[in-house]
Amino acid sequence: QVQLVESGGGLVQAGGSLRLSCAASGRTFNSYVMAWFRQVPGKEREFVAAISASGDNTDYANSAKGRFTISRGNAKNSVTLQMNSLKPEDTAVYYCAAALVPPSIVVPIRGSYDYWGQGTQVTVSS
């Protein structure tokens, strides 16, 4: 079992930055691929970024490439999403997710994730 708690959301102007954090419980955190997804009302939850359990592979949605960076600290049981050059269309509830997969695998598919946080709101004003 893994419990995930996100933090760091808020209101920011377009062009600004935010850093989201996800704290995970459990002693086997470094066995899980970690990801960020986001969702706006009326739309499906979409993939943003993922990092492998080993930390050596990452994957990003096209909308996030070049602006967002995912990283993990296995010693601290945490994963972060650094978001730069934010746009109004980045406004969403951001969710942290975890899945138990082999060490170097990254998974951009929502249905592959077993554990989810409660979400944190990110609002980007124009």
Short description:
With 126 residues, the chain is mostly beta strands.
Secondary-structure class: mainly beta
Oligomer: single chain
What is the H/E string?
A: EEEEEEEEEEE
Name the helicity range. under 10%
The helix count comes to 0
Radius of gyration: 13 Å
Low-confidence stretches: none
Layout of helices and strands, plus pairs?
Blueprint: E1 4-7, E2 10-13, E3 18-24, E4 32-39, E5 46-51, E6 58-60, E7 68-73, E8 78-83, E9 92-100, E10 115-116, E11 120-125
Parallel strand pairs: 2-11
Antiparallel strand pairs: 1-3, 3-8, 4-5, 4-9, 5-6, 7-8, 9-10, 9-11
Description:
The chain has 126 residues and is an all-beta fold. It is built from no helices and eleven strands. Strands 2, 4, 5, 6, 9, 10 and 11 form a seven-stranded mixed beta sheet that branches. Strands 1-3-8-7 form a four-stranded antiparallel beta sheet, with no helix packed on it. Strand 4 and strand 5 form a beta hairpin. It is globular and about 40 Å long. The model has no long low-confidence stretch (mean pLDDT 95).
Q: Which features does this protein show?
A:
126 residues, globular, 0% helix, seven-stranded mixed β-sheet, single chain, mainly beta
